[in-house]
Design goal:
Helices cover 47% and strands 17% of the residues. It has 457 residues and is α/β, with parallel strands linked by helices. It folds into 3 domains: 233 residues, 3-Layer(aba) Sandwich (Rossmann fold), CATH 3.40.50; 112 residues, no CATH class; 93 residues, no CATH class.
Length: 457
C-alpha cells in the first residue's frame, strides 16, 4: 500500500516538474557539474546518476564533476563559481542549495522573538536574491542550469537529535521559490522536497522514529540518496529498459521483436535453445544498503528491466545458463511471461558491478579533491600562506582550538583539517588519477556478446 501511494505521489511530482522544462538527457561529450553543500560533496545521489548513465548508455562518455562544499550557502556558491564551477567548462550546472541558507539554528526550541523571526525572513530573502544571481551568472556563460528543490530536514521523526522545528517549512519556501525561478528563466527543475516529505510522512505512520534521511535529520543515507537519484532520472525519462530479448520461433522474428539488443545467432538442437546476443546496455547494480528505497520507488519497473521472454515452450521446467554459468531454474510459464535478468547474478550484472567498483575508486579520489576544496573555500580563503603547509597547519590547529573546539562537529572538522595537510601536496596527482579512472570506466562498460542456453530438465 505504501509503495502504491508513493508511486502515485512520484507521478504527480514528476508531472509538475515537467510542466515547465523537462530535465535533460545527457549525450556523449557532455560535461555536467553538480553544485551544492555537504549532500552534494558526499555525492551519493549524483554518483548513482553517473553509474546509471555508464551502464544504460555505454556509448556515451559523459564527464560528471562534483562541486559540492560541506556547509555551503548561496553566497559561498557565488564566491566560488569561477574557481570551482566555470573552470570545468560544463554544459550543465545542476544546483541543490538551501539547507544551510535557512540558518537552521534559528529554529531551535526556545528562540521565539520578533528579532529571531526577522532573522529567519532575512535569511530566506538573501537566499532568494543570491539564487537568482547565481542563475543569471551561469546563464551569462551560455551554460544550462538545472534546479533541484532541496532535500528535507526531518522535523517530524522522534529522534535523539535536537529538533529545529520549522526548518523544513523554511526549506519548502526555498523549494517553491526555485519553482518560480524555473518559470521565470524557463529552466528545468526536479522536486526532491515533496516526494521525500511524503515518504517520510507515510513511513512514520507505523514507526515514529523512521526517517528517509539520517539520525542527524539533515543528510540522506543510502536509501534517501537513491530516492533522490530515482526522482532525477524519472524527471528525465518516463522509463528506460536495459533490454528485451524476446525469443520467437525464428531468428528473423526474434530480431524484430527484441529491444536494445543484437541477435547474433539462434538455434534449437538436442533439446537446447541457444541464443548469442549483444545487449546495448547493462543492468543497474543496486547496492545492499540501497534496497530499502525499492519499497518507496518503482525503480525496478521503470529503470532495471532486462527481460528474457521465450514463446511457445513445451510444458515443463527449464535451466537457464549464460556463458556456461548456471543462473536459475524456471517453468515454461515464467519464461513465457518474462523473467527480469537484472534480478539475478548474471555475467552482465557482474560486469556492471565491476564498473561500480571502478567508479568507487574514482569517487574516493574525488573525495580527497573535495576535502581540499572544502577547507580552502570555507576556512582558508583569506589565509595568505597556503603554499606553506607548516604555516597552514599551525593556522588550522589554532582555528580549530579557538573557534570550533566546542562545536558538535568539532571532531569531524579536526579530521578534515588534518587530512587537508596530508592531501594538499597530491592535489594535481588526484586530477590525473580521476582522468585515468574515468577512462577505465568507459573501457569496462562496453557490452559483449553473451551465449544464453535454455535446457529442458
Amino acid at each position: 500500500m505504501l509503495k502504491k501511494y508513493i508511486l502515485i505521489l512520484a507521478f504527480s511530482v514528476i508531472f509538475f516538474s515537467l510542466n515547465g522544462q523537462s530535465l535533460p538527457i545527457f549525450k556523449s561529450g557532455d560535461r555536467v557539474c553538480f553544485v551544492g553543500n555537504s549532500i552534494t560533496q558526499a555525492g551519493d545521489f549524483h554518483h548513482n546518476i553517473s553509474l546509471f548513465y555508464a551502464t544504460r548508455f555505454p556509448e556515451r562518455e559523459i564527464t560528471f564533476f562534483n562541486a559540492g562544499i560541506s556547509g555551503d550557502v548561496t553566497q559561498g556558491v557565488i564566491n566560488r563559481l569561477d574557481q570551482d564551477v566555470f573552470i570545468h567548462d560544463p554544459h550543465y550546472v545542476i544546483i541543490m542549495i538551501g539547507m544551510n541558507d535557512i540558518s537552521r539554528e534559528l529554529y531551535a526550541k526556545g528562540l521565539k522573538s520578533r528579532e529571531n523571526d526577522l532573522k529567519k525572513l532575512k535569511a530566506i530573502e538573501l537566499y532568494k536574491f543570491n539564487l537568482d544571481s547565481i542563475i543569471k551568472r551561469i546563464m551569462s556563460k551560455n551554460m544550462k542550469v538545472v534546479l533541484q528543490k532541496p532535500s528535507i530536514y526531518d522535523q517530524t521523526a522522534v529522534l535523539e537529535r535536537f529538533n529545529n522545528f520549522g526548518a523544513n517549512d523554511a526549506l519548502k519556501i526555498c523549494a517553491d521559490y526555485m519553482g518560480e525561478l524555473a518559470q521565470k528563466y524557463k529552466i528545468p527543475f526536479v522536486d526532491y522536497w515533496t516526494i521525500m516529505s511524503n515518504i517520510n510522512k507515510q513511513i512514520q505512520l507505523s514507526d515514529s522514529s523512521a526517517t528517509i534521511v539520517s539520525p542527524d535529520r539533515v543528510h540522506p543515507g543510502a536509501p534517501g540518496n537513491f530516492v533522490i537519484s530515482y526522482q532525477f532520472l524519472k524527471s528525465a525519462f518516463s522509463s528506460s529498459v536495459v533490454s528485451s530479448l524476446i525469443i520467437k520461433r525464428s531468428k528473423k522474428k526474434t530480431v524484430k521483436a527484441s529491444i536494445n539488443c543484437e541477435i547474433k545467432a539462434l538455434s534449437r538442437k538436442n533439446g537446447i535453445l541457444s541464443v548469442q546476443y549483444k545487449e546495448k546496455a547493462l543492468p543497474y547494480p543496486i547496492r545492499d544498503d540501497q534496497l530499502k528505497a525499492l519499497n518507496w520507488t518503482d525503480f525496478i519497473h521503470d529503470f532495471n528491466q532486462q527481460l528474457l521472454i521465450i514463446e511457445s515452450l513445451k510444458t515443463g521446467n527449464y535451466q537457464l545458463k549464460i556463458d556456461e554459468e548456471f543462473i536459475a531454474y524456471f517453468t515454461h510459464q515464467e519464461l513465457e511471461k518474462g523473467v527480469n535478468l537484472a534480478n539475478y547474478f548474471t555475467p552482465q550484472m557482474k560486469q556492471a558491478i565491476q564498473i561500480r567498483e571502478k567508479f568507487n575508486e574514482l569517487w574516493k579520489v574525488e573525495a580527497n579533491q573535495r576535502t581540499i576544496k572544502h577547507i580552502e573555500f570555507m576556512h582558508l580563503k583569506d589565509f595568505e600562506f597556503k603554499s606553506d603547509l607548516n604555516k597552514t597547519k599551525i593556522f588550522l590547529d589554532s582555528l580549530h582550538r579557538h573557534k570550533y573546539s566546542g562545536a558538535s562537529y568539532s571532531t569531524y572538522l579536526k579530521t578534515q583539517f588534518d587530512k587537508y595537510v596530508i592531501l594538499k601536496p597530491s592535489e594535481y596527482l588526484f586530477s590525473e588519477q580521476i582522468a585515468s579512472l574515468r577512462k577505465q570506466v568507459y573501457q569496462l562498460n562496453k557490452p559483449v556478446i553473451h551465449h544464453i542456453q535454455i535446457i529442458k530438465r
